[in-house]
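Request from the bench team (R.T.):
"We need a structural guess for the complex before ordering more pyridoxal-5'-phosphate. Sequence and SMILES attached. Just send the tokens back."

Command: build protein-pyridoxal-5'-phosphate structure.
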Amino acid sequence: MNFYAGPAVLPEEVLKELQENMFDYQKNGYSLIEASHRGALYDGIHNETVQLFKDIYAIPDNYKVLFLGGGATLQFAMIPMNMMRDGKTADYVHSGAWAGKAVKDAQKIGNVTLIFDGKDSSYTSLPAPQDIKASAASAYVHITSNETIGGLQWKDWPDTGNVPLVADMSSDILSRPVPVEKFGLIYAGAQKNLGPAGTTVVIIRDDIWESSPDSLPAYLSYKTHAEKNSLYNTPPVFSIWAINLVLKWVRKMGGAEAMKNRALEKSDILYSVINESGGFYRCPVDEKYRSTMNVVFRLNNEELEGQFLKESAEKGMMGLKGHRSVGGCRASIYNSLPVEAVEALADFMKSFAKSH
Ligand SMILES: *Cc1c(COP(=O)(O)O)cnc(C)c1O
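Reply to R.T.: structure attached below.
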């Protein structure tokens, strides 16, 4: 039972299909990861993966789906490099550890306005969407849809008018339907909900990549990748192949709406155990914004938390330790994690509380 925060659990059937096709891809006599990224074999997978994204998220025609390297982390730099120009500023919502990293990189490129800073609440709450207003001369508004370490998640989207809304969806992409037309750019590292590490998916509106400055080095410009369908250089082919299979799994399961119901079902199970534990378990996050993907909780003291982690590991539950920067416990329950694993964790939490 894999509760790791990322790289994370993948559907068993996807792993098996990768295994079966690794040596001899669909009887072609060689592996897909040995195939040229300019050849017909890989080309089919590449374009199909773009199309699967467009179908599952109902992405409008004036957007491109890109597969880049460098992780979500490279996007922290590419976004301001491409979008913040001509004396403009950018607005950031500072909601926790990941937003903080995005802010730091953007400050190296240009002027950043923090239109919300969760510091006073130790990053346990978010602003109401209607309180998010773009400031004058703002090039974009950046939010982090799910703070993977803090365990908080946006439930409704702000309306930023003509100023593009940019979102880091690394840890909750495809966990629910998203009105893509409300965003200028969405990005996500693959290794939480989409597949193995190596690919970053960028969904970008045409007017944004079209106005990337020509002064940028090739790889750092969205224009390069959009004009070449993410084949300017060698894309992360293995990761894209696996994402292709994960997207087919999502489609088979019922798409984004089904993923949302699944996420709500699983997270409700765990938050109920926490809420009904009489204070034995505590979730520090504002109830309105508790994540459906990363459930964070504390026990009374670190010794008890250590005992909890030890006993849960003995029961085959991996990865429940909170991020090293905050401590405590965290159950990451991404799309692929079966409901049964969450039920087993809930049962364990109840019996652990009783016996301690
Ligand atoms: C994991 C994560 C990142 C970093 O992703 P990399 O692919 O490791 O660069 C960024 N933002 C969020 C919200 C994350 O969960």
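Two things stood out. The longest strand covers residues 111-117. Residues 6, 71-73, 98, 144, 148, 168, 170-171, 189, 192 surround pyridoxal-5'-phosphate (CB under 6 Å).
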